[in-house]
Structures are given as C-alpha cells and as structure tokens.
Amino acid sequence: MKTLAIIPARGGSKGLPRKNVLKLRGKPLVAYPIAAAMASGACDRVFVTTDDAEIADAAREAGADVPFLRPADLAADVTTMEATLQQALEAYEAHTGETFEIVVFLTPTDVFREPEWIAKAVELMKADPALESAFAGRPDFKNYWEPLPDGGWQRVRSYMQVYGQRQERLRNGRVIYREDTGLTCATRASIIRSGRRIGNKVELIPCSHLADLDIHTALDLHLAEATMAWLEQHPNEEVY
C-alpha cells in the first residue's frame, strides 16, 4: 500500500505570524514533521502543501517534495483541514500520476512526535484492511463535567466520581484519550478523498503529555524551545 505523508503549512498564520518558518533549536518548524516522516520509514512520499514560496523552499531543503503551491483560496483562515487534505491528495496524485492508499497527516506545530508513532500507525493500517484510521491520542486522567438541559451538571463518565491514582485508572481502562491527529494520523486515502480526516473504525496510539505543546503563539514557541533544551540535557528521563 503506497503511503503519502501530507504536511499542510500555509503562510498566513495569525496567532504567530510566519510560524512555519520560525526557528526552533535552529530548524524551521516545517522541518520537524518532514524529519519524522522520513525517519519513520513508513512513507513513500513526503509532500508539503503550502501557498507560500518561503515555506516551500524550507520544506524542500528539509527533504520534502513541494512540486507546486496551493491555491490561495484553499489557504484562507476559514479553510478546513479536511478540504486542505482532500485537495492536496488529489492534486499530488494528478501531478505525479501515482495513486496512494494511505495518507499520513502531520502538522508543523506539533513537534514532540516520535517517528515510531508514524510507523506504528501505517503498520496497523496495512495489517487490518477494515481499519479506516490510526492516530495518536493523549491519555487524560482528569474528571470532566458536561452541562444538563436544566442548567445542572453531570460527570461525563460515572467512574469519575471515584477519585484515585492515575496508575489505577490506567490499569482499569478508565481513561479518556484526546484525539491528536496533528501529531500522527494515518487514514485510508478513500476517506480523505471523501472530505473527511478520519474514519469510524479506528485504532489509537497513546502519546505523551508533551502533545499539549502545540505551537500557535510566541509563548508556545518559547516553551517548546525550553523543553527541547531540557530534554537534550536529560536524555535518560522518561517523558513518554
């Protein structure tokens, strides 16, 4: 099954202008998902879809394929990720003449990913033809409440009324997982062509709390820089 990694990186970011080419530990953000996709060994092609010439140059320098720029009308603030992925897949297939069965979606703003997650997601997709998507998810041990129509509140899960250690909840399978598709998401190309990001029959790959560091502001970038510096100084610390 041919696998295409698609990395969307538009030029018009608002919260952190030009964020996809800003440097983190000396490398532009767009280089991080490219490096992870290549290191995973699971992607036949690594394609960056962008409307911006500077981002395109940085992506090519990092090793990605950027044969054309994305149309401006598909790089607006209101453009959905689903529409972006659909157009990217169809345009890339038309340009190359290739057909892909699996699409791996990665974002430049998520930098704390392991190449092994990508390899695992693609492996799961290839092993089970019925599987529609495999993606990263962060385990969450907090208690959540939702509003009731009468104005009251109720727990999202009944087990949340029992307070205890997170290890106990993990052992008992009483954990909610937050979907983190930007970190790693492998999906059938047919799902992407239909305008969706993930299917209904899925497998989840647990990731670490570092998934919370999604870079959209100057503070996020500062925290990511400091975290990477700390990780370099403490290579043996267990964080995942």
Automatic annotation (TrEMBL):
Keyword tRNA processing (UniProt): no
Protein name: Putative Cytidylyltransferase
Organism encoding this protein: Magnetofaba australis IT-1
PANTHER family: HAD SUPERFAMILY MEMBERS CMAS AND KDSC (PTHR21485), N-ACYLNEURAMINATE CYTIDYLYLTRANSFERASE (PTHR21485:SF3)
Superkingdom per UniProt: Bacteria
Record SUPFAM superfamilies: Nucleotide-diphospho-sugar transferases
GO molecular function: N-acylneuraminate cytidylyltransferase activity
Keyword Ribosomal protein applies: no
Entry keywords, A to Z: Nucleotidyltransferase, Transferase
